[in-house]
Fold these 2 entries.
Entry 1:
Amino acid sequence: MCNFSGFKIIKKLTSLMLFGALLWALVSCGTIMLPPLEVTSCKVGTATIVVEFTLPPDLASLEDGLSVTEDGSKMEGKITISGNKAEFTPVYGIKDNYDYVVRIEAGTEDVQGHSLMDTFVYEYSTRSEKASFTVDFLVPESLGQEGFTENPLETAPGENMIGGEIHVLDEVSTIQLEFSAAVDKKSLEAGLTITPAFEYFLEYEKNDCLVRIVPKKQLEINQRYVVQLKNSVMDTKRNPLEKDLGWSFFYKLDEIPPEIVFKHAATSEDAVFEENSSTEITGEKLELGLEEWIILDFSEKLDLDAAVSLVFLESLDIGVISPSLEIIKDYKNGNRLAFRPQWSGNSGDFWGSNWLLVVKAGLEDEAGNKTTEEKGLFLSYTLESQRPLEFLGALLVDTEKQSGFKACFSPQLPFVSMELDPQFYPNRSEELPSKVELHLFFNLSEKADALNDFSLMENLSLSASNDCCELTVKKLLGQDSSQECKNQFQEFMAELELNGGNVSSEIAASTSLVMVSFQVELLNRDSRGLVTLELEEAIADSLGNMLGKKILCQVNKI
């Protein structure tokens, strides 16, 4: 009998061997049919770059895969093909003292579709010499004395720059840059900056290794100048500076700390810095008006924005919050600040208050000198001509019937009782109204002659609720600051004390007390209610000083 299982195994092995041999043959044939594309040489000439391949390259594929850079910048040019050679002709040719990189990307094909297996890179330089290019910053010394001192900075005078701080003590006729090789003039003029800018011309000496920067005008005293060179500055062989460089110096540096003078200006905001608009404050205290300015006059220019943070107002009165400060900066001259309080709400709330304007130590001028002592100026809002009008109270009295009727109106005592005796003021609507007087008491500026009658009549009202009575202000009887005024005010104070209130002795003795009298018609009604005296904030004295806030006084009619 035959062993059929063994026969099957042999048959399977034979099939596998035949399949493997066929696969190897196909791969071998593919390798022979599709050989890889390779670069055999690359040459950079005076005008063209020639690349030779093992097979004729495809033009379209090469245009996509070939790139040439000149000092890192991509070059534009034309590609031509002759057999296995490709020639790249740059638009502007091949230049001296440049670095070139030729790159052909993997996958670039020949005309038959064979591909470049690996990216080809060829570097070439036309530089005749590569050398370190350096520069020194020089300021000539004056004869017989030290012209400058050099102190290296911990931090550079410009971002990503190195250099030193030069304190110039004498005249600066030229600034010198000494290069280690002849400098390329075009790159120097493009890469040199001076801040703040001034007009200058350049002088080249020592075969263009020494460059003099000659200012056309005298430099500004105490000004800090920064000289900067970009690393794009090169020598004539196109060797660049290693990094950006910078130096700074002061012309005639003043090392004396700035001084501060307090001045006073009673003028408009636009004219606050004009000549003769301010006067020096000689004392330690100033009576300040609403629109008046305090000027800080500095002996040197300084950073005004930074200086503001060192100036503030301190209240010297318990319970009085200092107003914020309105600030003007003299950017034109750089040495003055102006301040005045911003009166929020009613400026009368600040009347008589006192503050201290504080200037902290540490104000710094442009030369870096700082003040070492704190300075202060005492201020008070007590200018008599701007003293706000003050309402003290009112008394409603009967001057005809001998009834002894009095009604006290006071801002400090709400809802005091008022009783109308039926014997003198019957509760019948058919009765004729009684004539009474309303005496209003004000304390006003010593500079003011009187109150403004029109503002009084326009801004005074007397009313009653619940139809408890009728009160009609008929006419203004006049103003009085004589002894009669003081007598009536004494009666008001007595009535006020009976109801638990009081008036300070200082106000009672004031020479600027004024009584304003109105004739009022009173008609009683048989009901209870509130009698209200209302004064609007626009009531003013002859100087224009107003109450500044609305006054509301009420009494209970029983």
Note: The chain is about 15% helix and 35% strand.
Entry 2:
Amino acid sequence: MKSKTSCFNRTIFLKNTTTFWPMWVLYLLYLLSTMPLPIWSQAKADYMEQTAQEIANRSYYIVESVVEIQIFPFPVFLFAMTAGLLVFSYLYVPRNANMIHALPVTRGELFVTNYLSGLSFLIVPQLISFVAMLLVCLANEITHIQYLMTGLLVMMGEAFFAYSLAVLVAMFTGQLIAMPVFFFVTNYLYVGCLYLVATVVELLSYGVSDFWNPGVSCILSPLYYLNNNVRARVVYGAGAKANAVESINISGMWLIGIYAAVAAVFVVLAYQIYKRRQLESAGDWLSVRVLKPIFRWGFAAGGGILLSLFFVEAFIVYAIGKDGALVNAYPWVAASMLVFGFICFFAAEMLIDKRFRVFTKKRLAEWGCFSAAAVLLLTLFEFDIFGIERRLPQAEEVKTAFVYMDYPVEVPEEDLEELLELHRKILADKKTNLEVLNSGKGYYYTTVRYYLKDGGKLERRYAIPVTEEYLSDAESPAARFLEWESRAGNLRKQLFGPGYETNDYQVGHIDRYNDEGEYDYYTLDGEELTQVLDALQRDIDAGNFGTYYTYCVREENVTYRNELSFEYRTENLYYDNYDYYSSYRGAVETADASAERVNGFSENQVYTSVRFGAGCANLVETLNELGIIDDTWKLMTNEEYDGTQQ
């Protein structure tokens, strides 16, 4: 009778299941405690719902909270790594590796059996917890179980990819401790490299700021990308059903499909490596010879840059001061890169060779090549060979632009060409601007941000001169930016948000002080609130407020210690000017999804405070006429207030 060839060994599978039972039991307990149990506890909790709609919404909220836990990738990746590490742990001990491969089973049989063993440690607990959730939902009359099924599919897809990646990583090393390290690094390698490069560019390229802008390419960092793109949220209705939850949207399903397809490739690749794996590699950091020079160079580059950045940052903080800046960081970065690159390069070689005597002529020559390449690349950034610091968008490419000197100012379309010309002037005056920065005084940091029509963003940050000489030139960048800040519309946006025209003001407050330094919090409402707001608007139109919001030229002790504050609701999706500036593109969707609205207004109260001084003649006069400020309760500068304490 012909013998049968099998790719699965039942005995090994059962042995893995019984040997490594703590892992899958722990995973099962984690799933049961974070999914079925919360559904039960939330369903049985006492609530104060008054309407059938609120009760129906709560059912959605409960399911959404559990689906969020289901699709959260980090625990899945953690247990997947553990499963892969356990079932292939025999590869990391020479005696175990030789013993297992001496058994009358093929490598294909070993691989498939161990792979399926580890995968079952993840999938079976997920299925059990899903059944438990169904029973709990049915017991509590929660009917939206289709979303739990979708969440299960997402979780299983994440498990398939994470486990396949873990097995592939396990094939590249012969060290038990190296496997989880390599697994973590693999999941963040691409995004980490982008971040390090962006940080170096910002240090070496004049004015480059916020260069770190992760996009779709970060799909190459799986755990990072899944964590940021797989989401669950409730979806509300429209019109009369605006307060009713209609469904739960689970985003990122397409992403799970892509990663599942990649996981299948990983399984095949891992099997091919396993078939060719040398048993002698047990105990080695790398089991594939071709990866050793890549590991040396990668470890030296990543570790060298990271340590160099820590060193430069520490130098700025402790040698220059927390508010200081390196006018020319290139020599510091290059020198520290040589030192730390040397340390990391030969540390990697020690890990590979498992000995300390690694300073051979061959390795020193290789390190010399690495150092030359590293310094050359840094030099290219320093001299802007890639044109990063000189890059400016064309006017037709810009959706909107902002200048942030004292506060964010949106540049209107008619002033966009002027902004670009001022930006070119800043670049042309690079040497002069750096000299002023190096002097330690007479400069002010200013950010220029462009939101582009193609969805991109370009941001630059410069220290520009604000001395009397430069400000006397009406066409200088600082003078022009200050003029834009002084415009009434821009100041209103800063004080009352982009939707200031439709704000619904409800109450105001003002701090008052007496000659003994005592404090009183006075509330404005009704007619007082209307008159104070009207006086404030007249001062804005008269240009009386600008000096209190321009820090770079404001004289000391001209602002009152007293502060006006207002509470209001707004129809605008952006609550304040900085929110509008910082999340110009993304905040629309976020605010639209999260803000609950009543009669067109946000339910969230918006709070804003207003600084002012004696120059705000209309406001000061109105406060006196209303008797809010009198002989007892006064307006005081900090200097005057300090005098009352003596």
Note: The first strand starts at residue 231 and ends at 236.
